[in-house]
User: What shape does this take?
Amino acid sequence: MPAVHYDSYTDARAHFKDLLDAAERGMVATVRRDSGRAAVVDAERLRHYLALLCPRAEAVAEGDGWSLFFPGLPIAADGATLEAAITEMLCALREYAEDWNDHLSTAPNHQGNWGLVQLVGISDDAQLRTWLVGEDGSPAHPSPPDA
Assistant: This one.
């Protein structure tokens, strides 16, 4: 199946199954609407690539607990244990994505966070947790707890 391009949403609607089939196969699938064009992509493929591109949180042991933060972003979480901090970070990410969709998307210092918001939106908690901790099970640059 070659790439699919539809010059109107009416045409895309008439061929919706073909549009979704192309996206599922990883093919280029676009729809033109007025002067804009949208791409239809498989959510799991998009999630995979966004997870590779988005920066991961950094973890720091502080006093009797852990802090997680994203350098340069207003997203942070604390917990008595690393696991508790990760759980709090999941909530913080969901809240940030909601705020971004509600009003931060047009703020100059938040516009560039589209990819992170999309990643949060198409991931369940287990997927976000895996992304946060990485394949080895730990956040990026974890500092060891004080001895």
Remarks:
- The beta strands are 4-6, 29-33, 36-39, 58-62, 65-69, 76-79.
- Confidence is low (pLDDT under 50) at residues 141-147.
